[in-house]
Amino acid sequence: MKKVIYYFSGTGNSLAVARDIAQNIGASLVPVISLLGEKSISVSGDTIGIVFPLQDFKAPPPVADFVSRLSDLNGKYIFAVCTYGLKPAHSLARLDKLLQSHGGRLACGFAVKMPHNGIASGRFSGSAVFRDISAWKKRVPSVCDVINRHEKKALESSPPIF
């Protein structure tokens, strides 16, 4: 069974999450940015992951563009992980709708709190950064267990801020 995680990362938080999952499930990592010139992207794995940071409570444009060019999604186990600083809102449900319009569907989606690095984030607190990363590290085994067993779970979300 081939497992592939496509990731997009700006500050490294999403890359770190993608690496943690890949190491635990035996997946290869592919940066979304390396596929931006492709007209159609055929996925060859049986298990497909998409890891990305939230921007304005949704997947950033390169991720949405990437998903819109995916093909051969039928019958694939697809999961997503969004990293966020404030709240995940319904970002994974939005991604699922986009995937559905291209023949796929999220089996599960996880929201991972990471240090907020937006324009209004203020100063980083060392203890807050440690707390967020430690909380993720504790979740890695359970997230990977869900993925390895190809479980279907509700997409993680939160009420909108506004």
Describe the structure.
The chain is an alpha/beta fold and 162 residues long. It has four helices and seven strands. It has helices at 13-25, 61-68, 91-100, 126-148; strands at residues 3-7, 28-31, 41-42, 47-53, 70-71, 77-84, 106-113. Strands 2-1-4-6-7 form a five-stranded parallel beta sheet, sandwiched between helices. A two-stranded parallel ribbon has the order 3-5. The mean pLDDT is 89.
Main attributes?
alpha/beta, two-stranded parallel sheet, 162 residues, 7 strands, 22% strand
Oligomer: single chain
Beta-strand percent range: 15-25%
Strand order of the largest sheet: 2-1-4-6-7
Please count the helical segments.
4
H and E order? EHEEEHEEHEH
For the biggest sheet, the summary is: 5 strands, parallel
DSSP summary, beta strand count: 7
The dominant shape is globular
Q: Structural class, judged by helices and strands?
A: alpha/beta
Q: Ends: how far apart?
A: 42 Å
Write a concise synopsis of the structure shown:
The chain is of the alpha/beta class and 162 residues long. It has helices spanning 13-25, 61-68, 91-100, 126-148, and strands at residues 3-7, 28-31, 41-42, 47-53, 70-71, 77-84, 106-113.
